[in-house]
Amino acid sequence: MPIIDLRSDTVTKPTVGMREAMFSADVGDDVYGEDPTVNTLEAMAANLLGKEAGLFVPTGVMGNQLSIRLHTRPGDEVIIEASAHILRYEGGSASSLSGVQLCPVSGLRGLLSPETVEAAIRRPDLHTPSTTLLCLEQTHNVGGGSVYPLKTIHQLTDLARKYGLALHLDGARLFNASAKTGVSVAEYAAAFDTVSFCLSKGLGAPVGSVVVSDTGRIEKLRRLRKVFGGGMRQVGILASAGIYALENHVLRLTDDHANALVLAQQLQAISGVVIDVDAVETNMVMFQVPQSTKSTEQLLEECRESDVLLNAVGDRSFRAVTHLDVNLEDMKAAGEIFANVFACA
Ligand SMILES: *Cc1c(COP(=O)(O)O)cnc(C)c1O
Question: Which of 10, 62, 64, 85 for mutating ligand 1's site (highest number of atoms within 8 Å of CB)?
Answer without folding.
Answer: 85
